[in-house]
Amino acid sequence: MGLREWSVGGVLLSPFLIYVVLALLVTGVLRLLLRLTPAGRWIWHEALFDCALYVCVLTLITVVLGPL
Fold first, then answer.
1. Residue-range domain boundaries for the chain
2. Rounded CA Rg of the chain
3. CA 22 → CA 9, 59, 65, distances in Å?
4. Rounded to the nearest 10 degrees, how much is the dihedral formed by the CA atoms of 9, 15, 19, 22?
5. 3-class state of residue 64 by DSSP
6. What's the angle, vertex CA 14, arms to CA 48 and CA 57, rounded to 5?
7. Potential cystine with 15: which of 3, 45, 47, 48 (Cβ 3.0-4.6 Å)?
8. Does 4 have pLDDT greater than 70?
9. 13 SS3 class
10. pLDDT by residue (tens digit) across 5-53?
11. For the whole model, what pTM was predicted?
C-alpha cells in the first residue's frame, strides 16, 4: 500500500510529515521525563541536546516504521 501524498488546497504534502509530527511528540515526552529525573542535570547545552534527540528519534521512527 505505502504512504501517499495528501492534497490540501491543491498543495501536496509529504507523507514524511507523519513521522516528523510523531518524532516531535516522542521527543517532547522524552524531554519531560529527563527533566523529572536527575539525568537532566547532566545536559550541558539544552538546545543542542534537544536537536540531537529529535534527530535520533526521527531516525529511529523512520527506520522502525519504514514505508507503511
1. 14-59
2. 15
3. 23, 11, 11
4. 40
5. helix
6. 30
7. 3
8. yes
9. strand
10. 888 898 988 888 889 999 999 999 999 999 999 988 888 999 999 999 9
11. 0.81
